[in-house]
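Quick start: what a row looks like.
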Amino acid sequence: MSKTVLITGTSSGLGLETALAASHAGHRVYATMRDPGKSSALRAAAEASGLGLEILQLDVQDPESIKTTVAEVLRREGHIDTLINNAGAGYLRNIEQASDEDINQVMDVNFMGVLRCTRAVLPHMRARKSGHIINISSVGGLVGQPFNEVYCAAKFAVEGLTESLASYVTPGFGVHFTSIQPGGITSEFANSVLKQVEATGGMLEDDYLPLLQRYIGNARARMGGDAYQSSAEAAAVVLACLEQEDPPLRLRTSAWSEGFCAFKTAADPDGRKQNEATIAATLGL
């Protein structure tokens, strides 16, 4: 069944590939990005494949932008079946070196952006008692990692938001929530994070430098192995999830990401058991 799908952050990487995959599968796709001037890659790929997806402006940091775009999609389609909160920004730096401005920016894009977009579509989904909100999180939303504490904190917050909403909005209104947790993706996202830290002070000569150099060296080495998957491979997992009638609460996108999070997920890989237990304990349902 064809769905109306709204996706954030589609100018490149996973967002771009998810927009193409969903459109190719026959869904009505509204691909959004903060700067439509960066839509050339998506437009070219869509045109080459004969896909009719729509491209709109949406800045996850701007509530008015979100409100306007959601209203426009609702005006055109009458409903939104699936929201995919994909827009995000990486950040690799120790909190002793990070400025408050940088920390606030990372939290705002990665967490508040998800919250704002979810809040914008939720009333319409509740009214229809139908819908699915997919949040692109990360293995960093389950497992804290060196020099990623700010990014991981934002993604942990996304996990808490997703899990909490699923504990009462799903049984009460039939709206589903899924957190998808990719590992490494071979895209400009990963490269830009490493380039940024190397070029803008992350390599400061301090006590952390040997550890940071080891981390970056290992991260670059993993790019050539099975730890990283392509954006298209991860997008195929997102597509399969949005097409499920009873989607999981949590989902990893590769064998590597499953293994990396194994200690956190072994007892409840898809999050259903904890969700059901929470609903029973708090709502008596």
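That is the whole record. The CA atoms of residues 224 and 254 lie 15 Å apart. DSSP finds twelve helices and nine strands in the chain.
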